[in-house]
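Structure ticket #2291
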Amino acid sequence: MSYLKAKNKFKWMDMQKEWLDEIKSKWRKLDIASYNLMDHDEWTVGDYEQSPFCQLIWGEILSRFLSKKYDQPYTYSINRNVLLVKSDGTCFRFLFDVMNNGKARYNRNKIEEDKNGCEFAYPFHYIGNFTPIPGMVKLPRSLQFIHKDFNEDWNQMLKYLQNHWKEFKMGDLSFDDYIEMTFQSAYFIENQIKPIYSVEDIQNLIFKRGEKIERAFKEILENKNKPF
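Resolution: structure written out below.
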């Protein structure tokens, strides 16, 4: 069962407060890290990583990070596939991507089928496997398609993001800032991207990252609910 109800207003920004109020009403009971958005048919008009549930979580986390970094208030707004995080003078535009898509290239003996009959080696529709990616400029080839060029290998994608960061026009928001605010430091060891050898490695990364995201999101909601 979906955590958030279907949209009944045309614009997502008109629904944003209603959806956030839904989450606030039950946030203590939400199991976010181990919640499989596909299995529970989480409401969305596109892919699960673009769902209101995912975007609201990241909107809260990114706006808090940027508010602290720049010492000024940042807010956010969501729509079908773009998250805008903005202050009075600056606006960051983020798209979303699935980091590890479950292809059975790590262990071909562990093949299952998803609801559409596609092969995959492990379930992957978790918040710990969804991430914002830069969306400030229109690129000759979108980052999502570049990720596909790497056979959905997120390690290769991280190298690409690191090597091409200036092309994304993120201002003085550095690649290291991006890694920190999206909880991807576990993909690195001694400043080098850590090798992935198995499905178990990926699953561990997904759930550990999901737990960090859940803690951060619930901490934000708890502080918002505290009386002044």
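Closing remark: Residues 111 and 175 are 35 Å apart (CA to CA).
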